[in-house]
Amino acid sequence: MNGPDIFTPIFNEALIFGALFYVLVLARNVWASIFFSGAGLYLLHRVGTGIFPSSLPFFDLVVTPYRSTFGALTSGLAILVSIYAHFYFEKKHRSRFFRLFSFFQWACLLTIFSDHIFLFFTGWEMSAIGSFALIGWKLSSESAQRSAATALSVTIAGSLALLLALLYLSELRGTTSLSVLTSPWPEVANFPNISLIIFALFIAGMTKSALFPFHFWLPQAMVAPTPVSAYLHSASLVNLGVFLFGLFAPLLKPLLLWHVGLSGIGLLTFAIGSILALLQTDMKKGLAYTTLSALGLVTTMFGLRAESVYYAATLLLISHALYKSALFMSVGILSRGMQSQDLLHTHSLWKLQRSLVLLMGVACFSMVGLPPTLGFVSKEMALHFLLGPFATANAQWFTWICASVGMLCTSAFAFLLLLKPALPSSETMPKSFNFSKVMQWSVWPLPLAGFATWGFIWSEFWNAPLLIWSGACFVGGFVLSLLLMRPKSPWMKDRPPWFHKISGAKWWEELREHSIPLLFDRLHTLIENQMSKAGYPLLFIMFAVLIFTQTPSFHWLWDFSTHTDRHLFLSIAIFTIGILSCTLLLIPSAKSLIFAVSGIGFIVSFCYAAFGAPDLLLTQILVEVATLILLIGGWFLARPKLTAIASSQSFHKGILKWVISFATAFVAVSAFLMANADLSLQKFSSNFFFENAQRAFGSNIVNLVIVDFRGLDTLGEITVLALAYFGIRGFVSRLPKSGDVPLSSSHEPRSQWTGPLFRPIAIMLLLFSLWLFWRGHDLPGGGFIGGLMAAFVLLSWRLVYRRKINFTPLAAGGLLLAYAIALIPLWSHRSFFESFLTPVGPSSLLFDAGVFLTVAGSISGILDEVYSMIFGFRKRGEHVR
Amino acid sequence: MFVNAWIALGLFLFLMVAIRFLLDTQFLRRILGFALLGHALNLMLLLSGVTGAQRNVIGTPAFVQAGRFELIVDPLPQALILTAIVIGFAVTAVLLIFEIVEKE
Question: What is the ipTM of this complex?
Answer without folding.
Answer: 0.93
